[in-house]
């Protein structure tokens, strides 16, 4: 067979491990040919590609980024160009395509699959917001990077008697904030799923100071918002792709808390370091397993499905189910964590 | 309630996170008193203990080791002293005990539970060999440490055209070897579950050199053994606790491979760095969840059970089931990895 | 003797290592008593202190922050309160004081020394801007943290064809930017010592793209400014202590470059992670040596001096000399680096 | 000009950064051509080489190993083949050679320089044992790796009441042991420069336990030896290159101490992880500066010299001086550290 692979959307540690696993499994076990499509869907629109053999994926398992490049494509472009994409795939002689990407990519994949492109998806998101899989690669690395930063910041906060508000990634879901907060014993975590009450947050932090502590750490997911009317809050609007823009919740919250607490409050925005660089061992193993099983799924004719982790096993599930709704943090996990407002 | 907690057996990153979570949940949610028992079961034999309040567990979530200390106790000592332990627990006024430990500890816990000690176990092992839970805290850290070392070693092996045989922990199971090998793209992995064929290993490595590579990496679990008769091999015998001693498989295998390959082969033994120090974010979260749910289980009267991860949820399961057999690497996982001999 | 020690100013990895070394040397070698003054100069104004014995400094060598706390004190407060400080020192029975701090602290120390307080300084700054010493502890850690972040960011930039502008610490000097830029092969570095020409910067980055590269990394010291008139630029003004406020050079530069290059430019502000947390081995050794030599200097009566590294040796030099001017990056180092605009 | 570069001897983090800096400086500033010689001196004996342009060194600054490969060559081979090497250099049209290597390499370089080969050396050693330079790249990384391992091991030793004897690199000098020991507050350090007294070591460790500590850490350089007659000790003999073999001092010392102390003592051998993998920021900057200055030295006709760090500056000094004796740890540094036996 001739299998095309592409990586699409934002960066995510583990992409290269998927590519490597796909090439290893396909070429060594099945004797397939693997074609790397350049810069995500763009490669399938423009036909830009290169052959991937064992040599091409040598030593990449632990490297950040993606050797295939990635780009954002406006959803309309794919929607209106389905016919064109099918033609390009045919011209390239592709028997199957393995797109590796997040929610947007998987939606596009589902659309193309419905239109007849033989395709097996691999979910990718540092945000852990894709339904149907226990977790995706990239998330563990993002949390680990955030935790290392939080550990560093906590020692300063402690010595210098400060409140720090640390903004981590998560526009629509609070998974990274929840895990990073739990792993560092943060005093409070605010998430997009639950508009926060700044009154209550202030009480929590004050109670801590009353108990003799000299500092506090608040972890805020990028997309967290206060309950309307409880504090002044500017949203960031939307960008050209229709995505919500960065609203600067940490900065706004730090100003508000400083006023309410009468203590020095500092915002810290961790930003893109969370989504790049060397993946953790956990993410490398998961990405490798996803890659291998995607190739097996191609050979099993399981088109229109994607790989997923369930417990300790890799399963396949219909793309339609994965994209029907975002996987948000459920109430049971908030309550378990206790630090979520 | 008055809850005793103890940590027993070898070191494991995440122990302090469990202790912290138990104290937080018990004191803040239930208003319990928590008693830390010193040096594992010894604390319950000698009655050595101290009160644990929020202050005592401040800042420990990310620290290696255990603030309670640990020690190895010969199994007979507990078996013959069940009556005594029950008396000590009664003298200390304990309503429940939460032992955190590996297979040996959980077996002892089960024995004591059968004898009437109200007890909820928390599994702990870097080896990932406890049945009934998808994974235990400590394992992710051990694999991560091994992977960081393997990444360092691979760059040297590549520049200096060597075969390195890296010995990782795992006397009875090959989980660490499997994951560390998968995460670094090792050329071969040998595990205790499957005696290896040194002929075949030699062929694998040679094939690699034939394909133009200049180095090779073999990952060996401590307890891996060659198929009888295929190469000279000295076992390490047993120690005073009846545990198998370290046989030095990497050293023996490196000598054998050097002879067969005619290339420089170097053994590296990673050793105890894998079982100590700061836990990964993954292990901190899991340990925290285990600690919290153990306290809830105590209040739910779920004695004789232990916490376990199943998919994304924490469940309880009977200790008897957890200790009935070691969780070894199943055939399906070997085959998936392809690098296991 | 009875020696007081205090840590003052912003956080800096290695402070605890200095404290530990002072306590070890003073108590074990000289039989001195060491008094820890709370929250920097405030401890010497309010008299808040505690005794530091070996037990108090156990296990702190690798921890971030400072067990003594720190605070910022307005310079006037010390200047006008010299008499009072001398009285407090006398009341506490201090034979000598060892202040550990940056430029502001050392200036205050010099003032107090002139007024008769027996005092030996230990320089501390992540910015490496203190004259008379080759380097100070904290700097190596700050650069290492910045480099780890830059490594992560570069892999994303490469895969996603972006220009990233990474802002590192350094309000008055470009040492961190220079070293972090050199260590990661950054395409351009802008520093406070040399107002940058945005035209030239654009040319450099464009040349890179012309050579077939798909991304570029610009490192900007916090205090870097464009040459007047070359691009719109808002400064951040000054805070209540008279320090320059954060102007957001990365953000402003990214906007400008995006316009000029027609490529996606992203600002990333590393912020306070650079000044907290576990010190590198290098900084722990240097801090330990400074601590020890400060105690020896006290016993040698070398008051009014401070510790300094010269080559491989620790020397003492007059505080007056250390504070006479900030150590900026010399022209020879720019030229050597070649990446500095 | 046409400049040849080679990397020789054991692995050392920073080699790729030197290669990159040589290529950048030579090609971009001087318009030179750079030739990479394969596998150290072997490339100059066999003539195996490849052209190095900017593209070839792209992204290597932070990678471990050496893209040129390395190998050990028996000294006689070079000594007897000087004529041949000069011929190969002439055939390749080399105007100068930049060998990057340790003591052995620099000795060979000096020999060849005396014989007329135009050559500028770059010192390389993780052991920090080359005279005339404050430090060499690779050393900081080796110490950092050892310190991270020691931090992990200490938490286990503390929880489990053990004495650990950690063996770090250093066959002839104790620099790594000294710095790693100082940076982690080790209880005792033994080094090759000073045969240790096991009686005294036992007293030190016992004193510690008497003071209420529950564990102890001893750092041993590979080449440390007991004073003759104080304990049984087997040396490792010599290998085919005449180098001393690994004697296993940690293992032998742990057995001896266990007998003397009546406590569990565990040896841990860190091994080759110390000499491979990603260099620290410090080593990348130093390696980059050495590479650049080596090219400037070539253009300045400073043949027969090598780059060196003195204070904050890069200097050149005659190879003859660098190789006349090994730089051992001086008495003043032992005494300063206080933990060295």
Automatic annotation (TrEMBL), chains A, B, C, D:
Record field: catalytic activity: beta-D-fructose 6-phosphate + ATP = beta-D-fructose 1,6-bisphosphate + ADP + H(+)
Class in the EC hierarchy, top level: transferase
Record keywords: ATP-binding, Cytoplasm, Glycolysis, Kinase, Magnesium, Metal-binding, Nucleotide-binding, Transferase
UniProt binding sites for Mg(2+): 103
EC numbers: 2.7.1.11
Pathway the protein takes part in: Carbohydrate degradation; glycolysis; D-glyceraldehyde 3-phosphate and glycerone phosphate from D-glucose: step 3/4
GO cellular component: 6-phosphofructokinase complex
Cofactor names: Mg(2+)
Complex formation: Homodimer or homotetramer.
Protein family according to the UniProt entry: Belongs to the phosphofructokinase type A (PFKA) family. Mixed-substrate PFK group III subfamily.
Protein name as it appears in the record: ATP-dependent 6-phosphofructokinase
The species this protein was found in: Streptomyces smaragdinus
């Amino acid at each position: 067979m001739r299998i095309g692979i592409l990586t699409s959307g934002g960066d995510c540690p583990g992409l290269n491990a998927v590519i490597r696993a796909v090439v290893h499994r396909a070429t060594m076990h099945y004797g397939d040919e693997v074609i790397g499509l350049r810069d995500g869907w763009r490669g399938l629109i423009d036909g830009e590609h290169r052959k991937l053999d064992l040599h091409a994926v040598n030593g990449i398992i632990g490297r950040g980024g993606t050797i295939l490049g990635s780009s954002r494509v406006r959803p309309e472009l794919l929607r209106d160009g389905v016919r064109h994409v099918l033609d390009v795939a045919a011209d390239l002689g592709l028997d199957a395509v393995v797109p590796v990407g997040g929610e947007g990519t998987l939606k596009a994949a589902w659309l193309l699959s419905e239109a007849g492109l033989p395709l097996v998806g691999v979910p990718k998101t540092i945000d852990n917001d894709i339904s149907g899989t226990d977790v995706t690669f990239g998330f563990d690395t993002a949390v680990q990077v955030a935790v290392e930063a939080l550990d560093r910041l906590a020692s300063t906060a402690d010595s210098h008697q400060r409140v720090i508000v640390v903004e981590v990634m998560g526009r629509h879901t609070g998974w990274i904030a929840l895990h990073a907060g739990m792993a560092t014993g943060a005093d409070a975590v605010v998430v997009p799923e639950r508009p926060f009450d700044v009154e209550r947050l202030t009480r929590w932090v004050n109670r801590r100071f009353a108990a003799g502590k000299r500092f506090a750490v608040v972890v805020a997911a990028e997309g967290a918002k206060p309950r309307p009317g409880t504090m002044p809050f500017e949203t960031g609007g939307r960008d050209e792709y229709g995505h919500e823009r960065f609203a600067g919740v940490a900065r706004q919250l730090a100003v508000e808390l400083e006023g309410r607490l009468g203590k020095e409050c500092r915002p810290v925005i961790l930003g893109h370091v969370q989504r790049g660089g060397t993946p953790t061992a956990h993410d490398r193993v998961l990405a490798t397993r996803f890659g291998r099983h995607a190739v097996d799924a191609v050979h099993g004719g399981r088109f229109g499905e994607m790989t997923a982790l369930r417990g300790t096993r890799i399963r396949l599930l219909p793309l339609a189910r994965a994209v029907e709704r975002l996987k948000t943090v459920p109430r049971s996990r908030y309550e378990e964590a206790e630090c979520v407002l």
